[in-house]
């Protein structure tokens, strides 16, 4: 398969092509991997943006509900009274004041229960703690995961319960004013939105490492996270970019995206470690590698195939030139045609050798065969008594006719023999028809008022090349075997027409038919190429000469007409005419 490597020019071409294909394959693979990596990073960025949006939506929803609750408080005096009672007492004092201020004809209003039903979804919402503060202390209402309430009273504002960190949640501060005197502050309401419940919406996203970092620097891990990740989150928070790459070690990088909340004091950070991402998508990268490798191998095999074919054509050209030098025209299988320089040259050289062989056969072998057959024709095919009989006819006619008639007959006979002995062996078909016409005119003299002839040949056939003097022997067969001297109407017709792929010539007479057994024998001997008997040597001579001249594109058929006589058909393919 790699035999072309022995040729220097093709060896250099193959190395150049191989280097180019490998370079292009690696470049395409690298570009494809880069595009895929960018797409995966883009997907991670979109996931982070979606998670941040859901967190912001949840925080804004809670803020709107708290604002709605504050409007509810200012529109309900009983609720304000209950808040005052809750703010200024301990548990016992709060319960005592509630009972003392209650009326039997009005429902009992409870600040904690109102918060639980309105804000906390039965205590199971995002808001897990509400505290009411004075300047020094505060009272607390808390909800556990089951929605149960608990209370703490008189805790200092510096108590750990009120410490605001992102680990505990987001704190909404709302000033509580006296509805009757807006400038008078009753205290402050603080609503704690639980971080775990808020960021739980982000945990459903496909995030490798995500965290929220408060303005004070506290880090809350939403997914993943360790000491190294916490340091990386702080680096991202300090970076002025909203997204980009950070080095995380030797030859290792991480992609980050950062979102800053406009309403709440925190920043959302998502980090994707590129090494981890590549390991996770290893199957996809393996498929890309196999596709690129397969494409490279396929292209290299195609290059090898083309170079091998070109090398074979080059060898074929060299062999053809060598054959032409040594005149070796032995037929070989033709070169397959290819639309490139080598293929065209190899095909043209094969065709040139084929044409040389045909020309040699046509011009030399045909001349030798014609010399041989002309000798036979002079001895056997041309009736030895033909000239004597014809001259006798002319002499007899001269006795009873004018001198002009005798002159025309002798002139016709002389013109016929002059054309026969000319050296031109290859003539046009119209010239061959002229020879036949001269012969038939002489036969009209021999059989006056008993023989007639007619030519019906299309003009398209008149310029066809042919060998000389092959129609006369076929016509003479009619006078030897089929002519009836007793009949007053002996007819010979020559027809010729053109079909799509061939030319047809017919010599038809109305004389005697050939017996079927004899006709089958003639056909069989013509097909086998046997030497014909004496009475058929003219027919065999014609068949041999035409076959040598036209090759396989020539065929001859002999048939009896349905009513009377014989029809000889000569078929010439247009391809055979084109090769002559």
TrEMBL record:
GO CC aspect terms: plasma membrane
Annotated membrane topology: Multi-pass membrane protein
Alphabetized InterPro entries for the sequence: Bact_2-comp_sensor_kinase (IPR050640), HATPase_C_sf (IPR036890), Sig_transdc_His_kin_internal (IPR010559)
Keyword DNA-binding: no
UniProt keyword terms in alphabetical order: ATP-binding, Cell membrane, Kinase, Membrane, Nucleotide-binding, Phosphoprotein, Transferase, Transmembrane, Transmembrane helix, Two-component regulatory system
GO molecular function, one term: phosphorelay sensor kinase activity
Statement: the UniProt record of this protein carries the keyword Secreted: no
Membrane spanning stretches: 14-37, 284-307
Signal transduction histidine kinase internal region domain location: 374-451
Pfam families: His_kinase
Protein's cellular compartments: Cell membrane
Protein name, UniProt field: Histidine kinase
Organism ancestry: Bacteria, Bacillati, Bacillota, Bacilli, Bacillales
